[in-house]
Amino acid sequence: MVRRALALPSGRIAAGILAAIALLAILGPFLAPYDPLAGGAEILAGPSGAHWLGTDYLGRDVFSRLLDGSRVSVLGSVQVSLVALIAGVIPGILSVYLGPAFEWVTLRLADTLIALPFLVFAVAVTALLGNGIPQAMFTVGIMISPLFFRVSRAATLSVARSPYVEAALISGASIGWVVRKHVWVKVLPPVAVALANTAGVGFVVVSSLTFLGIGVQPPAPTWGGVLAADLGYLSFRPWAPLVPTALIMATVWACNLLADVIRDVSGPTFLLRRGRNVHSQSA
Amino acid sequence: MRRTKWAALAVGLSLLTGCAGGAAGASDEVPTLRWAVTLPAHWDPVVSGSGAQFRILSLTYASLTEINEKGEAVPSLAESWDYNDKGDQVTFHLRKGLKFSDGEPVNAAAIKAYLERAKTQKDSALFGDLTSIKSVTANDLDVVVDLTQTDYQIPLLLGERVAQIPSPKAAQDPAALDKNPVGAGPFVVTENVPGSHVHLTKNPDYWDAANIKIEKVELLSAPDTATIVSGVQTGVYDLAGLAPNQVKAAEAAKLDVVIQPGYNASNISINVNKAPFDNPKVVDAVRYATNRQEFVDKATFGLAAPTDQPFPDTYLAYDKETANRWPYDVTRAKSLIAESGLTPEQLKVDLVIPNQQTAAEIIQSQLAAIGITVNIKVDPNWATPFFAKDLALSIYGTTGRESPVQTLTAHFGPDGPLNLSTPYEPEGFEAAVKVARETPLDSPDYQKNLRAATRAGLDSRAIVFTYSLPNLFVKSPKVSDFAPIPGQLHWTGLTVAS
């Protein structure tokens, strides 16, 4: 699937952008030319050779703050995705096999979580458990997990009653073996699409929360925090919000593009088209 | 701040869709002032206290006295007053024929009921300001105030911040009064939607109604500071408070930037009863580590002036003798930290604030430079632990008081609401304040005695003053100029062109 995705131009673009963002998250703090927390006398300065993106309201180098802040933003998104994946996929598959009681409980729980606004809930949880990205992102991950629950449950249901699966079970195969051998390959493509989408959602959520001052303590930089600070000084640096906005938009767009690509390359239309091409080439 | 950002989004959308523009475009049938404010959480002056919200409450409540441009007490509900020879009794003579908006008469009994409630009500935010008042006697229109000590500050004290008088009938139910104000001020509330808006119309029974030129006031919940200027520019608001970082935008939009004089002073509030500030060397280090000019430059864009006292350096009580007593000296601060014997782990402290503030980050970086690690914690319910004196470190910005002695006792007194280190008070302060209190305001010694009290107060380790920023407002050019009353907005004579 990865090879098929990267064979498409849109797949290569999405992967390229996300790889660049990942590199920023890993190397950003080391690449920053200045201490992102150190203020200077020159506040709200425009771009210059010394400060490529100017300085903020405390005289801190904005470029360094964006580089340093990329790690928090990316890790937050990754945390949301992983929590949602684990909390959604495992119960989603098990709900088909562990009997009606487990199925009823997990379905009602998923319905309940879907009904709650996750951003507001994340704000409430940080108010209760303290202002930090891990607790906020864990909450958002749990709130998003019904998406994975439903996707994985639907894919599991589609194969659980297939003749070959029933034959395997009658032949004495364990449920674990059936899941590993037959179910997982059906679940993986839609889960991969959901994962890419969730990464984008997670990024928006991290940016939104840090924009509102939730999740990080000053003076730690984040993309959302830099954007929020810039909005207070539009009369001094009207162009300044464009840079963090572009970073956030590019990342979310790349995640969504990747989701589209995965959906396309794993869908029956793509495989059929690919099959026809192969057939015509061999004819 | 968080809530205002959500509100900013809503206002932005309304501006885009033209809803607000429609309202602004409609010509007012009567002169109406649209004022963007943080709507008061409390409308009962006793509960609201003497903070900045008194300016909003002054729309609907008249006070016993007012101040003029020089900061001197002048008549309001009381048309005159006189002291006995000893200075421990003052009699206020009320105007005749006044009534509250519910029809109750404005008389001495109403004033007595208010002052007694302010001294005794459980949730009163004013009882600490009224310790000089022993008893009140009502004689028709004469209010006789007996004092616990000689105190010539009372006419200044009983102004807009401490003595906005509500109807005694309405005050029989303080909870209802706290939601629906009933006063004898220039306007009467006609509609109050909490969190949204408050509408007021002119009170024809106000004692100076002839000089109130505005017929209606609409208080609107203020959006994020970044959208205030566009709100005034598009006519959604006529008047709003202005953050220093928006002054340039307001000037570029050709709006009127009002720099109203005041007694404001911001400070770093320290609790000497809590570690690490129970070590005097750490407090001294903070004093030397404070670079006031950085606050002026970065938090106020040069609009403020540095101050190391609880008022600007132009104020009557500012003590020039002790000016710059703790100059900015990082080297000395570092050596004091070394002398304190505390480890880096012991030098970690939470700075608790109600919302994100540039000043907090400046304090964080200045204290980091001397080895104190400050963790900024934003607590929307900050007021509760602050006034309960439960915090180790915070910041506060006073809007001042009409009575300079009240300013001093609020900051340095053992029960001062702004003294985070209660019951701590600097040695000699009480005696110095007593002398200032006992000095008639027209005495040649008044200023000297006030300054001596300031000097005694500045020994306090509980507070480090940083800068004094005047009150900033932005207004539409169709609103006339405000009288330059220090710290206050007076409605008499103010006009709004249609």
UniProtKB/TrEMBL annotation, chain A:
The keyword Transmembrane applies. InterPro entries: BP-dependent_transpt_permease, MetI-like, MetI-like_sf. Keywords: Cell membrane, Membrane, Transmembrane, Transmembrane helix, Transport. The chain crosses the membrane at residues 12-32, 74-97, 109-129, 163-179, 191-214. Residues 74-259 form the ABC transmembrane type-1 domain. PROSITE patterns: ABC_TM1. Belongs to the binding-protein-dependent transport system permease family. PANTHER family: D,D-DIPEPTIDE TRANSPORT SYSTEM PERMEASE PROTEIN DDPC-RELATED (PTHR43386:SF1), OLIGOPEPTIDE TRANSPORT SYSTEM PERMEASE PROTEIN APPC (PTHR43386). This is Peptide ABC transporter permease. It comes from Actinoplanes couchii.
UniProtKB/TrEMBL annotation, chain B:
This is Peptide ABC transporter permease. Coiled coil: none annotated. Residues 1-22 form the signal peptide. Residues 73-411 form the Solute-binding protein family domain. Keywords: Signal. It comes from the Bacteria. The keyword Ion transport does not apply.
